[in-house]
Amino acid sequence: MSDNRRVLISGASIAGTTAAYWLHRHGFTPTVIERAPAIREGGYKIDIRGAALDVVSRMDLLEEVRRHPTEVKNATIVDARGRKVASLDADGAGGREIEDAEIMRGDLNRIIYEATKADVEYRFEESISAIEVGDDSVKVDFESGSAEEFDLVIGADGAHSNTRSLAFGPETDYLHDLGYYVAIFSVPNHLGLDREELTYVGPGRTALTYSTAGDTGAKAMFMFASDPLEYDHRDRNRQQRLLSEAYAGEGWEVPKFLEAMADAPDFYFDSISQIRMDKWSNGRVALVGDAAYCASPASGQGTSLALVGAYVLAGEIAAAGGDTSGFEAYERQLGHFVSVNQKLGPSNIKQMVLRSKMQVRMAMTFMSLMSRMPGKDRMTAKIVETIHQAATAITLKDY
Fold first, then answer.
1. What pLDDT sits at residue 383?
2. Which of 299, 290, 297 minimizes the C-alpha distance to 222?
3. Edge-to-edge strands of the sheet including 138-142?
4. Which residue stretches of the chain are H helix?
5. 56 with 307: CB under 8 angstroms?
6. Is pLDDT of 93 > 60?
C-alpha cells in the first residue's frame, strides 16, 4: 500500500471523524469534507455501549469521553398537569449498564475531531456535486467548483446522504419511514431541572425535556406519529409549523417549548426512518453510519453503529491494502451487527409513542405501579439485556 493513498470522506460527524482517525492510523491519507462551516456542536444525548465502547477505548479516548458525562439521574413521567406519574433511575430507563457512557453528541464529535485535526485535512463548507467512478480512481467534482481524484470515497453524510444519492441512486430507494417524526432543540431551563428528564405522553405524541451536567439550559424533544409530511430538509420555518400543528392543544409545558423553538440555534426535525440497503459499496465508493444503515433515533444505537462501522470499514480497507475487496469484507463483518441493531428501532418507537388514549392510560397505570414495586429493577433489567445483546452482537477484529 502506498503511504499517500488518498481517501475522501464526505461528512464530519461521528462516522466520518472516526473513519478518518482509523484510516490515518492505518497509514492512509484521509480528507474530510463537511457542508457545515464547522464541526457541529450541541445535539442530543447519546449512548456508547458494548462494542462501541471498545472502539473508543482502542482510540485512547475513553478517559476523555468519561470526563463529559451527562450525569442525568432520574427519568420521570408526568401527566398533562405536570403531576408525577412515575420515576425511574435514568440508566435503567435508558437501557444502560454501569460501564456504558452517556454523552452529548456534540461533545463526542468534538473529542474525535480534536484527536484527528492535526493529522487529517478538514474542508468545511464543501460538498460533492458529482462522482465519476473509474477502474483505478474516483473523480470528484465539488460544489466549490474544483475537481480532484481519490483512490476511494466514503459517504459518512447521514441518512439523507448526498454521496449515496450520487453513487447509489435516489433516497426513496433506501429510506423506510417508520411512521413517526422527531424534533429536538435547546430551550431555557425554566423548570429548574438539575440533571433530570421529564416525559409527557399523549395519544400519538410524546414530549420530553432534560438537563445535563455543565449546561445551564435544557433540551426539548418531541416524537409523534404521522402520515408522511411534505417539507424540505433545509426549510426550518416549514418544519416548525408542522411541529406546532402536530402538538396544537397539548398540555404540560409543550406550549412554552414551542414558543422557544424560534430562537433555538440547534433546531432539528426529521422523520424517524431507517436506511436499508443490500450493499453499502459501489465500485470505489462505500457508505458508513447512518448513510448506509441508519437504525433511527428510536434504536438508541445510531452512534454505536457509526463508531463500530467506521472502525470495521477502515480496518478492512487496510487489511485489503486499499483494494475494494475491503468493502466486501466490511459488509460481511458488519452485516449481523447492523441487522440486530436495526430491529430495535421499530419495536422501541412503539413504546415511546403510544397510539391511543387507552394505551396511554394502561401504560401510565403500569409505570406508576412499577415505580413503587420492589422488583422494578428486575423489570428494567430486561430492557438493559435486550439492548446489551444488540450492542455486543459483534466480535471486533484487531486490524
1. 63
2. 297
3. 128-133, 138-142, 147-150
4. 14-25, 50-58, 62-65, 90-93, 105-116, 162-167, 236-246, 254-260, 290-293, 302-319, 325-342, 344-352, 357-370, 376-391
5. yes
6. no
Residue position matching grid coordinates 475513553: 62
| Chain segment 14-40, per-residue pLDDT in tens | 999 999 999 999 999 999 999 999 998
pLDDT band, residue 370 (cuts 50/70/90): low
User: What are the DSSP calls for 150-179, one per residue?
Assistant: ESEEEE-S-TT-HHHHHHT--GGGTEEEEE
Same domain for 148 and 170, yes or no, is yes
**87: in domain:** yes
- Summarize pLDDT for 234-287 with one digit per residue, the tens: 899 999 999 999 999 999 999 999 999 999 999 999 999 999 999 999 999 999
Rounded Cα gap, residues 166 and 275, in angstroms: 16
**At 272, which amino acid appears?**
I
Report yes or no: 271 and 181 within 8 Å, Cβ to Cβ: yes
| pLDDT, tens digit (0-9, with 9 covering 90-100), for 129-182 | 999 999 999 999 999 999 999 999 999 999 999 999 999 999 999 999 999 999
Number of structural domains found in the chain: 2
CATH number where 87 lies? 3.30.9.30
Pairing of strands 218-225, 205-210: antiparallel
What Rg, from alpha-carbon coordinates, does the chain have? 21
384 domain residue, yes or no:
no
- 147: domain CATH number is 3.50.50.60
Name the helix (H) or strand (E) containing 323: none
In a domain, 399, yes or no: no
Q: What was the pLDDT predicted at 2?
A: 46
Q: Which helix (H) or strand (E) holds 138?
A: strand 138-142
Residue 398 belongs to some domain of the structure: no
**So what's the pLDDT on residue 1?**
43
Domain that holds residue 209: 74-98+177-272+350-375
Helix (H) or strand (E) holding 101: strand 101-104
CA distance 179 to 346: 9
Q: Which residues contact 222 (CB under 8 A, 6 or more apart)?
A: 181, 182, 183, 184, 205, 206, 207, 243, 246, 247, 257
Burial (CB count <10 Å: 0-12, 13-18, 19+), residue 347: exposed
Both 234 and 358 in a single domain?
yes
* Contacts (Cβ under 8 Å, ≥6 apart) of 39: 12, 17, 109, 110, 113
